[in-house]
Amino acid sequence: MHRLSLLLVALAGAAYAVPSPSPRSAHILHEKRVMEPTGWRQSRRLDADRVLPMRFGLTQQNLHRVEEMLAAVSHPESPAYGKHYSAAEIVDAFAPSKTTIDEVTNWLVGSGISRDRLRLSINKGWIHVNATTSEVEELLKAEYHVYTHPSGVEQIGCHNYSVPAHISGHVDLIKPTVHFNHRAGANAAGKIRPLPNIVSGPKLTGQAATITPNLANCNKMITLDCLRALYNIDYTPVSTDKNTFGIVEFTPQAYLPGDLDLNFTPSLVGVRPISVLIDGAVVQNTSQSFNFNGESDLDLQYGMGLTAPQPVTLLQTGDLFEGAGFDNWLDAIDGSFCTFEGGDDPEQDGIYPDAVGSPQSCGIIKPPNVVSISYGQDEATASAAYANRQCTEYAKLGMLGTSVVYSTGDDGVAGFSNVCLDKNGNEVGTSGKVFNPEFPATCPFVTAVGATQINPGATVNDPEGACEQVIFSGGGFSNIFAMPSYQANAVNAYVAAHLNPSPYPPGTFNTSVSRAFPDISANGANYVIGIDGQFGLVFGTSASAPVVASMITMINDARIANGKGPVGFINHILYSPIFAPAFNDITMGGNRGCGTPGFNATAGWDPVTGVGTPNFARLLEVFKSLP
């Protein structure tokens, strides 16, 4: 991939000469806050001379063609299957038009902001200008306030803002404005942070602490051998020098080297992942507990164990001071997305360089062929503009040949900590009755992975059920994203058979034509991991995601060995009826939450386990047969 730095260039160049001013039009509402901040008070108006780092996200070209372009290289019946785009082709296809750049620039200049104050990112996606509060309020017909939390944390923003009607179609979003996603106590800055989809089980003591893998105990303790037996995995990678597999972790989550050596693969003792440190990241070992080491230990032990001897790249993201959001790791693998001083959400993403001088990582590594991420956030805490812009980036990665795998959450139809919504879409805690889906799993351009279990008393040879031990597989329907065409037949069949009429009151979940998830599942219960020097059990879709990602990695290995390329976006394959024999349909269990039984697993696709779990050997043959 071409490395595209985000050096900012002046708009004054001849290539971006601004035409004479366009006729003025009346302002219209462009964005309003997703939800009012709970526990905060509007304390005062922002000082008129306060300088704000304004970022104008320009509307990209051809966004209406994203699904079409992705399908062209991902659909098994497409003549262009596997012929992925280059990075330069992606930038050229989606860069905002000269008309969009000119119109927004002309509006800003016509409003009294001199052209020499404006900067355009090199991918043409963002215009940046430092402006005073009084200038911005006049520009956006908005009022900026300071909000204060009892903890002393402050946030600035406006409730809503407007732009001229003729500008609205040229701007996706403007920051800082309405995006109020602070949660006091989330970290030192009070920001939303990606949370791991993992729950701790008991530490193993006594005889259990010296575990010998045994298929007879897989209903109580999942090991690598259990997974190989469950999903018919018998493959050793041979193209490891050409293949790539990345696992994302967010600081301060970090693995402990000694824990990796407790894995059940003797050849991996002493082997460590290839660490790519993003935005000042460190693989810290000073804070040691399940909350600091559990997620990373799990992801790496099973990702490395299943794909050995494939090297695994650890995309460790964020420093100990600033932390990181989903946009930060995307910045690191795609310089054209890197938007420091151009669009990272200051409430959700680390803004680098930060107060301690951590450098910004922008396009520092080519996207791995597969990336596994076992973190998420409640979709309700992301604005539609923020979520859509990020989701489009996942589509672009698919076009480049990268498979992006996300876990779906551990609270069934509820959000993190069983938080649900009210009828207005606001998070109101466990008393809410409206389902609360998880992002980025709801993005239609990622592969969302739910969780199954070996039922108590069952064996690896028996059908699995939806995970109902300790955690419940996240699933349901997005409140932001429309249903992609690849899943329409499967999801509509489920809705007609099981939700018409709905067993729940109107408004309990999104009954419009929206993105449904998960896409696929894998076991998420009773995983044995080395944690802080001893064995313990963990549960979560955090386990399911790296298992599915590992299988895609091995499929890529086989294709590369046959002179073919990586599979990239796989969802068209997952939902194709022709390939249904490659999956184990899950028909038992549910994903309760929000005071309801949630949805039920049933024959065919369902919003608990998706299309089911993989039969690796069959799935491998499917992908090997494709160009």
From TrEMBL:
Location(s) in or outside the cell: Secreted, Extracellular space
Stored PROSITE patterns: SEDOLISIN
Keywords, in A-Z order: Calcium, Glycoprotein, Hydrolase, Metal-binding, Protease, Secreted, Serine protease, Signal, Virulence, Zymogen
First-listed, main subcellular location of the protein, grouped into a coarse class: secreted
Cellular component aspect of the GO annotation: extracellular region
Swiss-Prot/TrEMBL GO biological process terms: proteolysis
Reactions mediated catalytically: Release of an N-terminal tripeptide from a polypeptide
Presence of the UniProt keyword Kinase in the record: no
Co-factor note (free text): Binds 1 Ca(2+) ion per subunit.
Domain of life assignment: Eukaryota
Active site (record annotation): 295, 299, 542
Signal sequence range: 1-17
UniProt function note: Secreted tripeptidyl-peptidase which degrades proteins at acidic pHs and is involved in virulence.
Protein name according to UniProt: tripeptidyl-peptidase II
Species classification: Eukaryota, Fungi, Dikarya, Basidiomycota, Agaricomycotina
